[in-house]
From TrEMBL:
The lineage of its organism: Eukaryota, Viridiplantae, Streptophyta, Embryophyta, Tracheophyta. PANTHER family: DNA CYTOSINE-5- -METHYLTRANSFERASE 3-RELATED (PTHR23068), INACTIVE DNA (CYTOSINE-5)-METHYLTRANSFERASE DRM3-RELATED (PTHR23068:SF11). One of its GO terms (biological process) is methylation. GO terms for molecular function: DNA binding; methyltransferase activity. This is DNA cytosine-5-methyltransferase DRM. The keyword Translocase does not apply.
Length: 219
């Protein structure tokens, strides 16, 4: 993990209402005095994390299996350039949490400072909204979007801007040149998530496999 979350940014689940109707963690009041039963708050420590949208029933089952410890929900946007809700059930100490250095960048621009001059004013993205492991057809899509930008000399209609931004958000496309888009490389995501560069370059993993492993990694 790249961070021990301070109490002011933690959101701890309660017996009811852990998730909203869409299955997403609700933002409850931070609980700076999270107390575990003495029989649980000691070694051996356990840690269960999930970055997918579990149903409330599933969270209840996980909690019951792990000594009825309530889930703790956080959003990665508080400590990285990625907006993603994560849920945990654990009996780790909650006092004196601290950042592990170096801290990951908080915005896409901090992670990729050399691309800043190419970003158009209407692309106001600061953080990633997901991690995409899709690679099939992406070069062709970037070429098509680039031609659209070149043909319009960078002056897109509102509808064209919406289409382009939708593709950028869902496929993690970033600006790498004038009127030129490209997908984030695994090395970029490793930096954004706080991992060492080439951390996923093991066992001959392909780009798709590296992106997929990062997609299911914790921060």
């Amino acid at each position: 993990s790249s961070l021990w979350m301070p109490a002011s940014q933690r959101h701890v689940g309660h017996n009811a209402g852990w998730l909203d109707k869409q299955g997403m963690p609700q933002r409850s009041m931070p609980d700076s005095c999270r107390v575990l039963d003495n029989r649980v708050a000691k070694p051996p420590y356990f840690f269960y994390g999930n970055i997918t949208n579990l149903s409330q029933d599933s969270w209840v089952k996980v909690s019951q299996f792990l000594y009825s410890v309530q889930p703790e929900f956080i959003n990665a946007q508080f400590f990285s350039a990625l907006v993603r809700k994560e849920g945990y059930v654990h009996n780790l100490p909650t006092e004196d949490r601290f950042h592990i250095h170096p801290k990951p960048p908080m915005t896409i621009q901090e992670a990729l400072p050399h691309t800043g001059k190419w970003w158009p004013s209407w692309d106001a993205r600061k953080q990633l909204s997901c991690i995409s492991s899709e690679t099939k057809g992406i070069p062709q899509l970037c070429d098509r979007l680039g031609r659209m930008l070149t043909d319009s000399r960078g002056f897109l209609t509102v509808e064209q801007q919406k289409e382009l931004l939708h593709q950028c958000r869902t496929l993690n496309l970033v600006w790498v040149g004038q009127h030129k888009l490209a997908p984030l490389e695994p090395e970029h995501l490793e930096r954004i998530m706080g991992y060492p560069v080439r951390h996923t370059q093991v066992a001959g993993f392909s780009t798709t496999e590296r992106l997929e492993s990062l997609k299911h990694s914790f921060q």
